Every structure is written in structure tokens, then in C-alpha cells.
Amino acid sequence: MEKKADTPIYWSVVAHEEWNLIIAATNAGLCYVGSPGQPLAAIAEWTGRRWPGRMLQRDDGKLQPYAKELAGYLQGKQRSFAMPLDLQGTPFQLAVWRALCGIPYGQTLSYSELAEQLQRPSAVRAVGTAIGANPVLITVPCHRVIGKDGALTGYRGGLDMKARLLRLEREVLTAGGAQMHA
């Protein structure tokens, strides 16, 4: 876990269709994936809170491997990520984020199911709050968590983005199944 104030947080933009996602990484790994169309000021504010004293520095080359993996996912070409992550959070948030990474591609869990999986069935709201604090959209798949009734609920990237990501995963799985049976 890097803490050196003289080491910058590197950032770049991943463009996919009409989405422009700001991504950021430390030398240790990806630490941020923003919402579509989010202004640079939002990541500057986030960096100031999570990484006080660290400067932002654009470096498209350094972030190219992260951008390539994210683009591959958004194009339906890959289902998982190999990139290193550098997540900063409380022990509870980190536990929730690890649990999110365990939700299989194309599947969903409700907030209460996730709380039960974490052996904290009465902590549904706390689980929701931790999910909302997930700094790495898509790669830590918080879009796979839905309401108990199956409804799409809060998502930092917006409900349209959440719906599109879930639809993409379903379509990739359906196409994969069709190719296997062809």
C-alpha cells in the first residue's frame, strides 16, 4: 500500500461508445474507475480525500494495460480482470469489495444475500454503504448487486450504466452458450 506523497496518482480516460471513464492507478494497481462523463474535478476531489497530498498526473501509457482490460470487458471480449488493484478502505469495505469480486460474471445477488454471505445478515444497509463507496466500478462488480425484489437500485455510475453492464454480461453469456451449441 503506497503512501508516499511524492508519488503521483496516474490517470487516463477509457472511451467506449459514448462513455468516457476516468481511470486512475498508483504504482501498485488500479485505484479508481469513474462514472461515464464524470469531470476531472470529481477524481481530484476523491484523490484529495483518499490519497491526501498526492498529485494527479495524466499518463496514458502507464494506464494503457488497465484501459485495455476495461475496453475488452466493455466490448464483451473478456469476463474477468487480471489487473492489480490498490484499494483503500476500512476492513469492512475491503471485505465487501472482495465479496463483490466473488459474484460470478452474468449473475446477481441482492444486498441481503451479500450481507448473509459476509455472515452479517443484519448489516444490509452497511453493505449497501460499502458498495456505494467502491472506487473501482466495473472491475469490482458492484453492478451485480440488486434489490431483494430484483429491481436495479443505486449505482455510482447511474442506473443506465448498471443496466447496460448487466445486459452486456447476459448477452455475452447467451452468445457464448449459442456458440458452444452451434
Automatic annotation (TrEMBL):
Keywords of this entry: DNA damage, DNA repair, Methyltransferase, Transferase
Catalysed reactions, semicolon-separated: a 6-O-methyl-2'-deoxyguanosine in DNA + L-cysteinyl-[protein] = S-methyl-L-cysteinyl-[protein] + a 2'-deoxyguanosine in DNA; a 4-O-methyl-thymidine in DNA + L-cysteinyl-[protein] = a thymidine in DNA + S-methyl-L-cysteinyl-[protein]
Domain Methylguanine DNA methyltransferase ribonuclease-like: 9-87
UniProt-listed Enzyme Commission number(s): 2.1.1.63
Top-tier EC class: transferase
Gene3D superfamilies named in the record: Methylated DNA-protein cysteine methyltransferase domain (3.30.160.70), Winged helix-like DNA-binding domain superfamily/Winged helix DNA-binding domain (1.10.10.10)
Domain called Methylated-DNA-[protein]-cysteine S-methyltransferase DNA binding: residue spans: 91-170
Similarity comment: Belongs to the MGMT family.
NCBIfam families associated with the record: ogt (TIGR00589)
This protein's name: methylated-DNA--[protein]-cysteine S-methyltransferase
